[in-house]
Model the fold of this input.
Amino acid sequence: MAAAPSDDRRYWVGFQRVPFIGPTRIERLVQRFGSLADAWHAPTPALRAVLDERAVASLLKTRAELSLETEMERLDRLGIGVVTRGDPDYPYRLAQIAAPPPVLYLRGALSRDDDVAVAIVGTRRATAYGREVAARLAADLASAGVTVVSGLARGIDGAAHAAALRAGGRTIAVLGSGPDIVYPAEHRHLAAQITEQGALVADYPPGKKPDAQNFPARNRLISGLCRGVVVVEAPERSGALITADFAADQGRDVFVVPGSILSAASAGCHRLLRDGARAVTSAADVLTDLGLVDLSSAPAVQQPLPLGDGERRVLALLTTEPQHVDELAAAGNLPISDLSGLLATMELAGQVRNVGAQHYIRS
Done:
């Protein structure tokens, strides 16, 4: 589809608000009238030559009720950008899927670097193992210059976004709501950080609530933006599996992190593996399979700071399984006050990780 003049953007926004007119009909209108501006102002008989009666009636009603100038002023006031299928900066990979969304609303900014993106998705009820794996994968991918895409949900999504940010990389959160509504609410601070190092993206207009029926469409956009999708943890019924299905349909690579065969949180992952998805245990696996990096030229790993006696004692107690601070204190015969100070220092140094409720693991 040819690029449209920038002042046509308001008409893309207008048609996106019209029920019963989606990507296919918008394409048909552009072909018939030459531009969406001409289509928006077209007389009723000309519209009936292109659209069915229900779509025509819906367009006429929206045209009468919606002021495009007022709507664009409202978006500007809310700090919400608009990218349309007529724009040259519309995401390249998303433009290649069937029926790409005509309009994307965003807070933050998209970049050409986002053409090299990988999604990390999984269950909201993530285990400590799942959150740790998602964080490691996201940090390593972001450090390699890959944009990390996910859905801002609790669990795996949030861990992936946060780790990409900590690594100084880019991350995109695709919302199942309008761009002005952050769901879940506890991710407002995370969302604000994402707008500084990436973007919040939605194909729903401002004010649209995060209804359950919105999320399959959101998942389709997640996979559409990416070269591949990594599923970290997913039970048998999981939105992450829907994202994996969309990825396969769109010709994207599907990667899966194996989990414990005793964990229901990984049951869906293991089904994907049986169906032929690629098992991965590190970001290097993903980068190699996608041909994104020559790992032999990767920079050397920064050497850790020397450990004192206290740090050595704590690391000897820690594993990749979460342990409560009280358990660690008892096992190491350490006063809680001393142990808490050591753990705080070691967490800042990246040697340990607090996975929640004062449970720690070795990083």
About this structure: DSSP finds 17 helices and twelve strands in the chain. Confidence is low (pLDDT under 50) at residues 1-6, 294-305. The CA atoms of residues 44 and 231 lie 48 Å apart. The first strand starts at residue 81 and ends at 84.
